[in-house]
Amino acid sequence: MERINISEAKCRFTECLSRAASGERFVIMRRTLPLAVLISVGELERLERSAEITRRLLQNLGQSQKLLEGIEAGKVHPAMAAFGLWKDEEDLDDLETQIIKNRRGSSHLRADL
After folding, report:
1. How far apart are CA 57 and CA 43, in angstroms?
2. What is the pLDDT of residues 27-63, one digit of tens each?
């Protein structure tokens, strides 16, 4: 994925557009921050299909509609989609407790800065 600044994207717009239509991807930068992405229509459609399939899968696995809507709106991190899907798994009942215990006990793994 090629990174180009805004002024370069303006000067080379027709070229970038043709290359994006052929499958290349461009990240348009404002100074050092990514601002936008230029991709083909086919790539956009593929990404949208993938997101829809994932949403349907999570919905069929029992994820709440409210959480899925939050993810779609960008208000909730997509990693939260897995949250709660294991609630009926008895062998994972104490997962949270185990994680907290491991984190508290792993202070010797932290780097001294």
Report:
1. 21
2. 999 999 999 999 999 999 999 999 888 888 888 888 8
Claim: this prediction has a pTM higher than 0.70? no
2-39, which class in CATH?
Answer: alpha beta
Rounded CA gap, 107 and 98, in Å? 15
So where are the chain's domains?
2-39, 44-106
How far, in Å, CA of 9 to CA of 15, rounded? 9
Residues 6+ apart with CB under 8 A from 20: 26, 38, 39, 40
Best CA proximity match to 40, nearest among 51, 54, 26, 28: 26
